[in-house]
Amino acid sequence: CFNSGSSWNNCDFETNLCKVLPEFNLQAGWIRRNGQSGMGPPYFDHNGNESAYFLSLSSEMQSSSAALRTNVFLPTDEEHLCQVRFHYWVSQMSGTLMVGLQMSSEDTVTNIWQVSGELRNQWNVNTITINSTEKYEVIFSGMVETQRQGDSVAIDDITFSEGC
């Protein structure tokens, strides 16, 4: 289901964003960096590579939350559900990562998955299945409540199945 060879539906952030995540949909607050950037954890991507890139919330940002929007996807059908797989890092103190859907007919974002900082500092992986009768965008929202050193929310290797 996941064709990781295709740059269209795999965002590993090594060179830039992928086609599904256009640059202008990267709101202020998310930055593309690697573990050697001197910005605190994570100090490596989900493969343990210090020089490989991922997205993380900037600890210097003024606002405490930032969203990452995909392009608009077409409605799903029974044969082609949209599956989104991603690796995430949420610091144990005060980080939150949410995934939401915004339907083309609605102004509000419907939250479909959320994790908050009860995790140990490690990369985790999750897959979300989306079933929608209308056009939609997928929105990743990260929040860090405090600006303590080491508080971090990061995301890496977002893969979209062909049903998206």
How is this structure best described in words?
It is a single chain. The chain is mainly beta and 164 residues long. It has one domain: Jelly Rolls (Sandwich), CATH 2.60.120. It is built from no helices and ten strands. It is globular. The termini are close together. The N terminus is likely disordered.
List the helices and strands and how they pair.
Elements: E1 10-11, E2 30-34, E3 53-57, E4 65-69, E5 82-90, E6 95-103, E7 110-116, E8 124-130, E9 136-144, E10 153-160
Antiparallel strand pairs: 1-10, 2-3, 3-10, 4-9, 5-8, 5-10, 6-7, 6-9
At CATH level 3, the topology is: Jelly Rolls
- Beta-strand share of residues: 35-45%
* CATH architecture classification name: Sandwich
**Element-by-element helix/strand order:** EEEEEEEEEE
Gross geometry: globular
Helix content percent band: under 10%
Provide the residue-averaged pLDDT. Answer: 84
What is the SS-derived class? Answer: mainly beta
Radius of gyration based on Cα positions: 15 Å
Low-pLDDT sequence parts: 1-5
Pfam family, one: MAM
Organism: Tychaedon coryphoeus
Domain MAM: 9-164
InterPro entries: ConA-like_dom_sf, MAM_dom, MAM_domain-containing
Describe this protein with a few key phrases.
mainly beta, 6-stranded antiparallel β-sheet, 4-stranded antiparallel β-sheet, 10 strands, 40% strand, globular, disordered N terminus
Brief sketch in words of this structure:
The protein is mainly β and 164 residues long. It has no helices and ten strands. It has a single domain (9-160), classed as Jelly Rolls (Sandwich), CATH 2.60.120.200.
